[in-house]
Amino acid sequence: MSTQQSVSQITSHDEDKRRLALLERVVQRIHNNNRVAMTVLWTLSGIVTILFVSIVLLLLIQGIPYLIRPDFYSANGEGSIGSQLFNTFYILVLSEIILVPISLAAAIYLVEYARPGRFVTFVHFSAETLAGVPSLVLGLFGFLAFGSRLGLGFGTSRLTGALTLLCFNFPLALRLFEDALTAVPRDFREGGLALGSTKWRMVRTVVLPSALPGIVTAIILSSGRIIGEAAALIFTMGTTNPANVFTLNPFISSDNLTIRIWYVQTLGSGVVPPDAANAVSAGAAALLIVILLLINFASRGVARFIQRRITAA
Amino acid sequence: MAQAQPVQSQAQQRVQRARMADQTAHIVFFICAILIVAVIIGVFVFVGIQGFRLFGEDPHARNFLTSTNWDPDGANGTTSYGTLGFILGSVITTLIAIVVVTPLAFGMALFMTEITPKWLEGILRPLLEIFTGMPSVVIGFLALVILVPFISKVVGPLTPNPATAGVGWGTATLVLIIMILPTVISISIDAVRAVPDSVREASLALGSTRWQMMRNAIIPAATTGLATAVVFGIARAIGEALAVSMVLKGTSLPTNVFTPLAFFQPNVNLTQPIVLYFSDASGTTRDAYFMLGFLLLVISFLFVCVSRYLASRSVYK
After folding, report:
1. Chain A residues with CB inside 8 Å of B307's CB?
2. Which residue, A37, A292, A252, is CA-closest to B138?
């Protein structure tokens, strides 16, 4: 009897031990998997980060020797980019002047006036579709609708380019402006309306000022896209410059920094000598990176600054 | 009484003016909102009508989707408008690019939402934002001066024409990877971030390790969002034009298209012929490029519909 008991005790003890060992192995395996997965994730992210950082550094290293030379910014000469730099900022200002009022107005309509329902969904679907259209196809559309005599007939000009950029940036600007407006708390609006003001007055005096940081950030973000865009512009704004680009005339055709980089490396590779072509591309690429970095920092700083000013006042 | 009358009518006038302003504003805003609908319809109508003219102008255009011979000027006798070669180029470069990008982007998204220490996120986030807005020509130029000479030196001697080796699908694929990676990462991050913390906590409370939590809780919960990211990446890769046109440099498919060497010789895709030859084209030839553009438009529209369908099925937004 007692021997039997002790035997069963021993076997159950062995069983426990085996189970424990099994459990330990499972836990070990799970933790090993975890460790392996973490290592893989760290490595993947490390590779991507190193890739990004090295691209930025490579571009800067290649371009800075040109950027520090003053004659690189002169207006004429094949290895300089003075006119392109002017054109880039000209088209930036021109297209923002067209883009901001229109897309802000559309955003105000969708957020403040429209009743949520089919119409708003439809507009959002249109915006999403437009955002998905390749910018090259938008360039073809701009060529027909704004440039050719089938549409508005502005020819290949800065104005045609700016209107095409409106189509290109409309969806993004609309979404960012909508986000900025919806972030304004509801009781602000109710306060305004309770004082008896009309909707438009309430929007103008209550909603827009409080949404200002978001609006400014949206403008800065869209300007980064305008500076970097080229595919929508090569058929609408042109690839070459007239004799004098330093005018505010919107009806002349001109290029910009990105178009110039593309042009000297493809279509113009026979016209522009290779040395000048590489100087222009390397310098302009580095300059674009610097401008985009500045825009990125500005978009953080400015929004914070305005926020502080508004809340302090 | 005589005094109260003008005061009252003045107040009435003011109210009336305010109402008028409100109504005018309402109408103006409505027109601006309608404008975006008008633009997208206009894109389809303008590019579509101009493109479909091709089929009326030249009966040879019937081989648009069935031939690989693109010769709109009729340089070899009769005109021919076969786009299969271009489509093949876009499909191959896009597929390889998205296969490489997807694991990288998902890994990076998980890393940035679940693992990153705060200080590292402060560096990675701006870096990602800058790369999302990186001009494509800049990447194209960099590939042209760094990748092309390197590839040309390594595989150039194997190709039939070493002088032009280096450009082609291989370089184009690498350019596409760099171009779409930031976009896919940031949409994936949004998808993972949209999964509520309660899912994470529930998984951890059951005793999962961090990896088990990611694999069995977060990724299944974020599936539709992650799929949207991939769809967006594909759409962007197909529409990408300038950078790719800088590193393809071909006019037609190479003769040895089904060997690996085809990746390192001048080649074609859907966007490159439009970019390079549209400006000089006229008449029927130009309409052929519009038709190519319309093809791109339809493809991108299909992808928008797919991503919208996916978004409508997602649980967490």
Report:
1. 128, 132
2. A292
| Model confidence, pTM | 0.89
Please enumerate in sequence order all residues whose Cβ is within 8 A of that of A104, keeping only pairs 6 or more positions apart, or say none.
A173, A177, A215
Calculate the CA dihedral of residues A49, A52, A58, A61 and round it to 10 degrees: -80
Spatial CA neighbour of A122 closest among B41, B303, B307: B41
Domain that holds residue B206: 84-313
Triad B173, B176, B180: Cα angle to 5°: 145
Residue B129: which CATH number? 1.10.3720.10
Please report whether residue B75 resides in a domain.
Answer: no
Render pLDDT for A199-238 as a digit per residue (tens, 0 to 9): 888 998 889 988 988 898 889 889 988 999 999 999 999 8
Q: Bridge-partner residues for B267, per DSSP?
A: B249
Distance, in Å, from the CA atom of A20 to the CA atom of A126, rounded to the nearest integer, reads 61
Q: Are residues B40 and B171 in the same domain?
A: no
Could you give the ipTM of this predicted complex?
0.90
| Residues A41, B50: C-beta atoms closer than 8 Å | no
* A275 burial level (CB within 10 Å; 0-12, 13-18, 19+): exposed
pLDDT for A45-84, tens place per residue? 999 999 999 999 999 999 999 888 888 888 777 778 888 9
Instruction: Give pLDDT tens digits for A140-152.
Output: 999 999 988 888 8
| Ordered alpha helix ranges (H), B168-317 | 169-193, 197-205, 210-213, 219-221, 223-239, 242-248, 271-277, 283-313
Spell out which residues of chain A touch residue B296, defining contact as CB-CB under 8 Å: 134, 136-137
CA nearest to A166, candidates A140, A147, A144, A138? A138
B139 with B48, same domain? Answer: no
**pLDDT greater than 90 at residue B70:** no
Residues A280, B307: Cα–Cα separation, whole Å: 39
The answer as to whether B66 is a domain residue is no
Nearest to B174 by CA among B237, B132, B130, B228: B237
Give the nearest partner residue to B276 out of A267, A292, A293, using CB atoms.
A267
How many domains does the structure of chain B reveal? 2
**Contact indicator for B127, B231 with CB cutoff of 8 Å:** no
Residue of A nearest to B21 (CA): A200
- In percent, the amount of chain B with pLDDT more than 70 equals 98
* Coil, strand or helix at B74: coil
Q: Is residue B63 part of a domain?
A: no
Determine the residue of chain B that is closest to A265 in CA distance.
Answer: B246
Q: Which of B302, B293, B255, B258 is nearest to B273 (CA)?
A: B293
Asked if B103's CB is within 8 angstroms of A141's CB, the reply is no
Q: B152 and B187, same structural domain?
A: yes
Query: Both B201 and B269 in a single domain?
Result: yes
- Residue B108: pLDDT above 70? yes
The three-state secondary structure class of B69 is coil
Contact: B111, A53; criterion CB under 8 Å: no
